[in-house]
UniProtKB/TrEMBL annotation:
SMART domains: HTH_ARAC. This is Helix-turn-helix transcriptional regulator. Keywords: DNA-binding, Transcription, Transcription regulation. GO terms for molecular function: DNA-binding transcription factor activity; sequence-specific DNA binding. Residues 178-276 form the HTH araC/xylS-type domain. InterPro entries: Homeodomain-like_sf, HTH_AraC.
Length: 281
């Protein structure tokens, strides 16, 4: 059932299950993220064989056909949301919200089906730890409704979660910097130093930066900064979180430094960026 946001007088079409039993998946009119923390299932997804072994995330859209015929010591949680949850609302009057034409694009590919998209994006050990933390917070926020920004915080964690899964799903040629990219895509909310990156890649500073320059046109730390600002831009547009909260969510210790870096790279302040996109018609 939808949750009622008493702070903003609206229904929010999301649900969280701490113990997903796979009996009703996929849920009608919902995208579903199922975080499998233990065991495995054997199933058919859209008439194709599927084996999901923990740790894993299963991404389902409402039109998928899932038939589970074996569950082995399974433990899983699920977060479900209506596709309209991707649409960013804007204030038109006091406590009145109206959908805008701005739609969150992060993670949409995870719910689309083609020959390459199995519905189970690859995750690593680092990603599992981050997913466990984010799913815990999602479940807490869905049930607590702690303050007026509870929906924004859910969307914030959803954006970060989907961004990480989508980036880990991208096919890239094997490279010495794969482990560095994994570290950046999972640990960017935390303190990450150049020494962390060089040790991860088993390369010296010059070799690491040379590899990044050839592949991405920037240094390793430059890539980290660009990635943080990319996620920050998504949070600015699709949530009402404060600049300080957003800065800390993407790895900046101080919002002043975040504002300085964002303005230098985007040629507009975070507030101007937010207003430009949030007011789009």
């Amino acid at each position: 059932m939808p949750h009622f946001d008493r702070y903003k007088n609206r229904n929010v079409d999301i649900e969280f299950s701490a113990n997903e039993d796979f009996e009703d998946l996929p849920y009608p009119h919902r995208h579903s993220l199922v975080f499998v923390t233990h065991g495995q299932i054997k199933a058919r997804l859209n008439d194709r064989p599927l084996v999901v072994m923990a740790p894993a995330v299963l991404c389902l859209n409402a039109g998928d056909r899932l038939e589970v015929f074996q569950k082995t010591e399974i433990a899983a949680q699920s977060f479900r949301f209506h596709p309209d949850f991707f649409v960013t609302a804007r204030v038109i009057a006091s406590n009145t919200y109206k959908p805008s034409n701005v739609k969150m694009q992060t993670g949409l590919s995870l719910f689309q089906r083609d020959k390459e998209q199995s519905g189970v994006p690859p995750i690593t050990g680092k990603a599992f730890l981050q997913l466990r933390e984010w799913f815990f917070v999602l479940g807490t926020e869905v049930n607590a409704h702690s303050d007026a920004l509870w929906v924004c915080r859910i969307k914030k964690y959803l954006i970060q979660l989907l961004r990480m899964l989508e980036d880990l799903s991208e096919e890239i040629a094997p490279s010495p910097i794969d482990s560095v990219l994994e570290l950046i895509h999972t640990d960017y909310p935390n303190k990450v130093t150049l020494q962390d990156l060089t040790q991860c890649a088993h390369l010296n500073r010059s070799s690491l930066n040379e590899t990044f320059q050839k592949k991405y046109g920037c240094t390793a730390m430059g890539y980290l900064l660009a990635y943080r600002l990319k996620v920050a831009g998504e949070l600015l547009v699709h949530t009402d979180m404060t600049l300080d909260d957003i800065a800390r969510s993407v790895g900046f210790q101080y919002d002043t430094y975040f504002i300085k870096q964002f303005t230098a790279k985007r040629e507009m302040s975070p507030t101007a960026f937010r207003n430009t996109f949030r007011n789009a018609q």
